[in-house]
Amino acid sequence: MSMDRGSAKHGPKRDELMAHEVAGIVRARRDTRAGEWRSPEPPGEDAPALASRPDSAGVLGSAPPGMTTVDVEERSELARWLGRAVFPAERDEVMDHLRHQHAPDRVVDEVRAAPEGVQFTSLGQLWRALRDDSHVESHRY
Fold this sequence. Notes:
By secondary structure, the protein is mainly α. It contains 5 helices and no strands. The radius of gyration is 21 Å and the shape is elongated. The mean pLDDT is about 75.
């Protein structure tokens, strides 16, 4: 029986070294090196600033089809205050959790618009209840 270590090109030691090199960038989503000379150079004049997505559906960092960037930011803020631990929950339980987390009043007021007596199993289901179809992504990437 063979074990899959995730890479056939390098040994386990090299895999760990490569993962360690980018760990800070992956966690912080920005360059974390103290020495500027160690950071990669920005793209030049002849290179585009944003990379295209591999599936040609848009530009990396853009909103998914059916949503605007404002919708994405609002859904992200709601997710920031809720987390996954609250689900499954009804509207009042979600509002209590938001108050316990000291979420802004505008976030609590937004959740108040959700229907009563419905058990939400995920943030996505709650978001669909709060927004009409024009503010919900039409498909996942």
